[in-house]
Amino acid sequence: MATKFGDKIFAGKMFVLYGFDEEGIPALTAYIKEGGGVVLQTSDRRIPDYAIVPMDGFPVDRTVNNIVTNTWMMRPFF
Fold it and tell me: Can you give the pTM of this predicted structure?
């Protein structure tokens, strides 16, 4: 069953990344975009649906709807 945003798992969702090194950000960004999501800059004033942090945590100093780890994001949802 298709959603109003299509069949992509992250369609219509906004993400912000915290605590990752510069080498890890492009792969995470590509994964989110392939899934139909949007990656916001940390300075963006919109409230993201998800802040993605590493497994060992990282302080999130802004309003977000959910804080999850990169492991949660990569797990199969089926």
Answer: 0.85
